C-alpha cells in the first residue's frame, strides 16, 4: 500500500485533471497542485502505514530477543544439568553414605577425599559456566583462535592476579571448537593451580604446531615441586586436567624446571 497509493493517486489525479478539469484549471495550476496532493496523501495515509510497519518491526525484534533469551536459558539449563546438577546429586549420595558410615564408625579417608573432589568439580563447573556467560554470543567480528585464547588469558590473569604472556603460533584450523573449549579449560586450570600452589607472579603460555602435531605449554616462575604432583592428596585440578586431556587423545606432562613448573599439553607426540 505504501508503494501503490502515491502511484494510484497521481494516476487518478492526472486522468481527472485532463478529462474533466481542463476548462477550470490551467496547466500550471495543475502542476502546482500535484505535489500538494502527494504531500497530503503522504501525511494522511502513508504515515499511519509507516507507523504500522515500524510497530510490526519492533514486535518482531521483541519476539526475536525473547527467543534468544529462551535459547540462552535452555543452554544454561543444559550446562547446569550436565555438570553442576549431576555433581551435586552425586555429592548428596556420597554425603548420605558418609553419614551412614559415621554411624557405624566406618568413616574412611577415601570417602572424605571423594567428597572433596566432587566439591572441586562443582566449583570448576561453576567457574566454567560463569566464564561462558561472560563471552558475547555474537559480534560484528569473528575472533581468531589466538584472539580467543588471549581474551581468555586476560580474564583469567585478572581473576587470579598473575602477569600472563602469550606466544601463540597455532593456526585457527588446528583445533576443532570442542578441542578449543577443552584446551582453554586446561589452560585456565593450570593458571589457577599456578596461583594457588606455586605462588608465582608470572606465567607464560606458548602454543605451536599444526593440526596433526601441536604443543601448548604453561610455565611459571614459582619454586617448582619435589614430589609427583599427581600423587599429592587434594590435587583434583590436575586430575581433572589429565582426564580432559586423555578424553581428547592428548598427553599431559607436568615437570619441575629451573625456577618454576612446566605444564605441557601435547598432541601427536611433539
From TrEMBL:
<dbReference type="InterPro" id="IPR036890">
    <property type="entry name" value="HATPase_C_sf"/>
</dbReference>
<keyword id="KW-0597">Phosphoprotein</keyword>
<dbReference type="GO" id="GO:0046983">
    <property type="term" value="F:protein dimerization activity"/>
</dbReference>
<feature type="transmembrane region" description="Helical">
    <location>
        <begin position="32"/>
        <end position="50"/>
    </location>
</feature>
<dbReference type="Pfam" id="PF07730">
    <property type="entry name" value="HisKA_3"/>
</dbReference>
<keyword id="KW-0472">Membrane</keyword>
<feature type="domain" description="Histidine kinase/HSP90-like ATPase">
    <location>
        <begin position="182"/>
        <end position="265"/>
    </location>
</feature>
<keyword id="KW-0067">ATP-binding</keyword>
<keyword id="KW-0418">Kinase</keyword>
<protein>
    <recommendedName>
        <fullName>histidine kinase</fullName>
        <ecNumber>2.7.13.3</ecNumber>
    </recommendedName>
</protein>
<keyword id="KW-1133">Transmembrane helix</keyword>
<keyword id="KW-0808">Transferase</keyword>
<dbReference type="GO" id="GO:0016020">
    <property type="term" value="C:membrane"/>
</dbReference>
<keyword id="KW-0812">Transmembrane</keyword>
<feature type="domain" description="Signal transduction histidine kinase subgroup 3 dimerisation and phosphoacceptor">
    <location>
        <begin position="73"/>
        <end position="136"/>
    </location>
</feature>
<keyword id="KW-0547">Nucleotide-binding</keyword>
<dbReference type="InterPro" id="IPR003594">
    <property type="entry name" value="HATPase_dom"/>
</dbReference>
<dbReference type="Pfam" id="PF02518">
    <property type="entry name" value="HATPase_c"/>
</dbReference>
<dbReference type="InterPro" id="IPR011712">
    <property type="entry name" value="Sig_transdc_His_kin_sub3_dim/P"/>
</dbReference>
<dbReference type="GO" id="GO:0000155">
    <property type="term" value="F:phosphorelay sensor kinase activity"/>
</dbReference>
<keyword id="KW-0902">Two-component regulatory system</keyword>
<dbReference type="InterPro" id="IPR050482">
    <property type="entry name" value="Sensor_HK_TwoCompSys"/>
</dbReference>
<dbReference type="GO" id="GO:0005524">
    <property type="term" value="F:ATP binding"/>
</dbReference>
Amino acid at each position: 500500500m505504501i508503494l501503490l497509493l502515491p502511484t494510484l493517486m497521481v494516476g487518478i489525479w492526472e486522468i481527472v485533471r485532463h478529462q474533466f478539469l481542463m476548462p477550470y484549471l490551467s496547466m500550471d495550476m495543475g502542476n502546482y497542485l500535484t505535489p500538494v496532493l502527494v504531500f497530503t496523501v503522504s501525511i494522511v495515509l502513508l504515515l499511519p502505514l509507516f507507523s504500522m510497519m515500524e510497530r510490526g518491526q519492533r514486535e518482531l525484534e521483541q519476539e526475536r530477543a525473547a527467543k534468544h533469551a529462551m535459547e540462552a536459558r535452555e543452554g544454561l539449563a543444559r550446562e547446569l544439568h550436565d555438570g553442576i546438577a549431576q555433581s551435586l546429586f552425586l555429592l548428596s549420595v556420597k554425603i548420605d553414605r558418609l553419614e551412614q558410615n559415621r554411624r557405624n564408625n566406618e568413616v574412611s579417608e577415601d570417602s572424605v577425599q571423594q567428597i572433596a573432589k566432587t566439591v572441586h568439580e562443582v566449583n570448576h563447573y561453576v567457574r566454567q559456566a560463569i566464564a561462558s556467560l561472560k563471552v558475547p554470543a555474537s559480534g560484528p567480528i569473528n575472533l581468531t583462535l589466538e584472539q580467543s585464547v588471549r581474551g581468555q588469558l586476560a580474564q583469567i590473569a585478572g581473576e587470579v592476579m598473575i602477569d600472563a604472556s602469550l606466544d601463540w603460533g597455532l593456526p585457527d584450523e588446528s583445533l576443532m571448537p570442542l578441542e578449543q573449549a577443552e584446551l582453554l579449560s586446561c589452560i585456565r586450570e593450570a593458571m589457577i593451580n599456578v596461583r594457588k600452589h606455586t605462588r608465582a607472579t608470572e606465567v607464560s603460555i606458548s602454543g605451536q604446531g599444526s593440526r596433526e602435531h601441536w604443543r601448548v605449554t604453561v610455565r611459571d616462575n614459582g619454586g617448582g615441586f619435589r614430589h609427583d604432583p599427581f600423587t599429592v592428596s587434594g590435587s583434583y585440578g590436575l586430575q581433572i586436567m589429565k582426564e580432559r586431556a586423555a578424553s581428547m587423545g592428548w598427553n599431559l606432562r607436568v615437570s619441575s624446571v629451573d625456577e618454576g613448573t612446566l605444564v605441557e599439553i601435547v598432541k601427536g607426540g611433539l
